[in-house]
Amino acid sequence: MEFHLLLLFLLVGGVFSAIPVTPDMKSFSSAIKGGHLPANTEKTLYEHSTGQAGVITEQWFTGRGVMNEDARIRIYVDGETTASIDFMLLLAHGIGGTESIEVGNIPWGTKRIAHAADGGIYNTYRIPFANSFKVTATHPNGGTFWYIIRGVENYPLILGDLLLPKTTKLKLYKNVGIILKPLDFITLADVNATAGALFQVTLSANSTDFHYVEACMRAIIDDSNSTMFLSSGTEDFFLSAYSFNRGLYHHDNAGCTLRQGKAQISAYKFFENDPLLFSKSLKISYRCGETRDGQLGCPSDFPPPTSRPDRLEAPLLANTTVTTYTWVYEWAM
Q1: What are the backbone dihedrals phi and psi of residue 260, each rounded to the nearest 5 degrees, phi first?
Q2: Nearest CA among 211, 229, 204 for reference residue 102
Q3: What contacts 229, CB < 8 A, 6 or more positions away?
Q4: Where does the signal sequence lie (predicted)?
Q5: What DSSP string describes 86-130?
Q6: What pLDDT score was predicted for residue 157?
Q7: Ranges of H-type helices in 182-243
Q8: Contact 134, 46 (CB under 8 A)
Q9: What b/e string do you get for 21-44 counting C-beta neighbours within 10 Å, with b at 16 or more?
Q10: Is domain 24-155 given the CATH code 2.60.120.1390 in the classification?
């Protein structure tokens, strides 16, 4: 009786995603204590090669002066010679600033990313593999570090309440230090000939003013002739408002991890609870500012024109330097 009531509660609450345990599920874990990372040398942190499929479920990194914004982590999946997951450590956790800036904002944590101490940064990204993977680290100066990784073999991949196909791979698409002129577009991810789901977007941007945050985030799904608008502005996409004027926040669905200077921000958005799915292609794009009207501008028909004041001229915009990380789960069509 109690079990059935619990099951009903979970189903009504929309969070039911229980995974039946099978005999071939096998947990794995590894830890490095006080390891040495030589300067400018790619060091293997962990290698898993049992021939079984599985999912990485957690990674934790620490080491003052080493596991910071200059630490590069690469994950080679299923024998790749070029890592499909290749990231700078802080940016992969939604942080666009430096360690010296970030230390004033910790501790904080969500179910997917957290920063608990000097270093002490971790994620619970579910990274699938078919038979093997290898994790490496590189740093320009090197030093002493600590590292933990965990996962489960023959473990289903769940995104929110969706069971993803067994062939799913996690891919990372990046733009690094791109200078956008006013009203320039930038493509965050252009995925073709595959089905999939958007997992996470991180944006790090810096300018001389906040006019660029008027930009709408856009998506074109399955080669559609129409653009789907994902937000009415940059901060709106990350579930904030008014140029992030209430400062930093770290929530499960979205967060702002940096807001400083004249107009520097970094923010993240997860798509577990509001899936963005595609069956053959996905194009995500962003813009440096926005026009008020016109074919390329954000829609101007909500609310109706009769209920809004006269429009103002678009402000003068400055160049904006942008870095983006876009994580996408992909599987065969």
Answers
A1: -155, 170
A2: 204
A3: 216, 217, 218, 219, 298, 299
A4: 1-17
A5: EEEHHHHTT--S-HHHHGGG-SEE-SSEEEEESEEEEE---EEES
A6: 98
A7: 234-237
A8: yes
A9: eeeeeeebeeebeebebeeeeebe
A10: yes
Alpha carbons 209 and 261: distance in angstroms, whole number: 9
What is the residue-averaged pLDDT of the chain? 91
Structure tokens at 7: 């099951």
Q: Is 318 helix (H, G, I), strand (E, B) or coil?
A: coil
Q: What tokens appear for 71 in the block?
A: 């630490």
Q: What is the pLDDT of residue 291?
A: 79
The reported pLDDT for the residue numbered 333 is 78
The domain ranges of the chain are 24-155, 165-333
CATH of domain 165-333: 2.60.120.1390
Provide the token pair at 121.
């940064």
What is the C-alpha to C-alpha distance for residues 86 and 74, in angstroms, rounded to an integer? 4
* Sheet with 85-88, edge to edge strand ranges: 43-48, 133-138, 72-77, 85-88
Q: What is the dihedral of CA 97, 99, 101, 106, to 10 degrees?
A: 110
Cα torsion through 262, 264, 120, 39, rounded to 10: -100
